[in-house]
Amino acid sequence: TGTLNFSGAAGQTVNIPIDITDDAIIEGTENLTVTINSVSNPLVNIVDGDAIGTITDNDGGAGFGISVADFTVDEGVGTANFVVSSNVAVAGAYTVNYTISNGSAVRNQDFTVPAMTGTLNFSGAAGQNVNIPIDITDDAIIEGTENLTVTINSVSNPLVNIVDGDAIGTITDNDGGAGFGISVADFTVDEGVGTANFVVSSNVAVAGAYTVNYTISNGSAVRNQDFTVPAMTGTLNFSGAAGQ
Predict the structure, then answer these.
(1) Residue of 32, 86, 91, 25 whose CA lies nearest to 60
(2) Fewer C-beta neighbours within 10 Å, C or N terminus of the chain?
């Protein structure tokens, strides 16, 4: 409240100063009001006794809000995190809803989570990070690089933008290598043995069955003179299990 002094001259203006606080918090447009309550001279009418002061925000913008980051991990890491971060301050706490989706990596085979949807809690402070933990399955199966995704669906505070709402989690395999795969073994037998075998073996596990093609070639031993086979080419079936 206060009192303004006028001289009585026409055209005089008198200010009511309002000091505006320039904070770093993202806010909606705000306002305050003033009301002229009375004039000491009854001959002076109150023509317009109410006014609104409007304050627009100068914080935030397109690049300010919530983002979620990609990750790339070896499957032996244990737990990986989609890190959801905020680079803005707002007045009060808010929540962020997300959805995890299978890609080539599948829940309960390649990773585990309690649920494929969830809610994260943010305090409203700038610079806060909140994790979405993903437990990675360390199996003994040779696989290609696999992935899953997360999407930020919504933010409870409409002043907080979704700056980057999609992320990819990439899981690289830690099985196999140069010495792992298919091998065929030599044999040496007496010609009276009856049947000899080229033994083809696998020391790796892979997801799903596969086939192996082979070709037999004459050397100094010639087909139908020194050995017989139904065909000089063929296909072997493997189940995908290691040690077959």
Answers:
(1) 25
(2) N
What is the full per-residue pLDDT of the chain (244 aa) written as tens digits? 999 999 999 999 999 999 898 877 777 788 999 999 999 999 999 999 999 998 887 777 768 899 999 999 999 999 999 999 999 999 999 999 999 999 999 999 999 999 999 999 999 999 999 999 999 999 988 889 999 999 999 999 988 999 999 999 999 999 887 788 999 999 999 999 999 999 999 998 888 899 999 999 999 999 999 999 999 999 999 999 988 8
The pTM of the full predicted model, rounded to 2 decimals, is: 0.73
Amino acid at 227: F
